[in-house]
Amino acid sequence: MKEKLTKDALIREAQFFCIEQSKFQHKELYGVTDGKAVGTLIEQKFQAYLKDRYELTIGSSAKGIDLPSDDIMTDIKVTSNKQPQSSCPFKDAKQKIFGLGYNLLVFVYDKIDDSESQTATPNFVSCSFVSKERTADFTTTSILNEMKKVGANEDDVVSFLEGIKLPADEITLKQIAQIILVSEISIGYLTISNALQWRLQYSRIRDLKNDISGIDKIISYNKPE
């Protein structure tokens, strides 16, 4: 009988997976330059790795979350160190301010091709578990908190949201502004760009050196000099 996957076990297994895969030579990754294809293959390997060891639910791409059970609620992101970013479904403009609504497990790799063996090794340079309360946009949440400290009113907040082109109509922007003024806003650590899908950028997470509540650095990044 397999034990149930927990958050602590997920973090522990992500570390083991990074160490193991960084030593393994993959023929199917050799010469592949499509970052999405590389990411999908690694993600599938990690899901299979977990399924071999734990009782868990794997989500569908339609649901948008890889590990959708209530106690895990985590989406897996695998991205190249050259440009650590990915996309995710747009559900609500408030996600940029209050977070995506689920956790992220972010793997960042440098793929090394070996022409002699015609294999590739995904060297994981960073891996982080980002709790859902830290999945909002860093700049937006930082500025809104400062605006609230100096007594910004609804019109001020609406003007700011219009200025950053938050994808919402005038009525919705006013509703969001009212929520902002009465809610606590946690500082997010993603960079979220507006698009038909959110574009998430992870360089701030990758480069993070300080201990931040809600972010577990599983593999720490050593930035080249």
Notes on the structure:
- The protein is α/β, with parallel strands linked by helices.
- It folds into two domains: 3-86 and 102-134 and 195-219, PvuII Endonuclease, Chain A, CATH 3.40.210; 138-182, no CATH class.
- The chain is 35% helix and 23% strand.
- The protein has seven helices and nine strands, in the order E-H-H-E-E-E-H-E-E-H-H-H-E-E-H-E.
- It has a four-stranded mixed beta sheet, with helices on one face.
- A hairpin with a 4-residue loop joins strand 5 and strand 6.
- The longest helix is centred in the first third of the chain and has 19 residues, at 35-53.
- The chain is elongated.
Biggest sheet record? 4 strands, mixed
Instruction: Give the rounded overall mean pLDDT.
Output: 92
Q: Report the CATH topology name of the largest domain.
A: PvuII Endonuclease, Chain A
Poorly predicted parts: none
Give the overall form: elongated
Q: N- to C-terminal separation?
A: 48 Å
Number of strands: 9
Annotation field: number of helices: 7
Number of domains: 2
The CATH class of the largest domain is Alpha Beta
CATH architectural group of the largest domain: 3-Layer(aba) Sandwich
* Major sheet: arrangement of strands: 3-5-6-9
Counting helices, strands and paired strands, the structural category is alpha/beta
How much helicity do the residues have?
A: 25-40%
SSE run: EHHEEEHEEHHHEEHE
Kindly estimate the percentage of residues that lie in beta strands according to DSSP: 15-25%
Radius of gyration: 19 Å
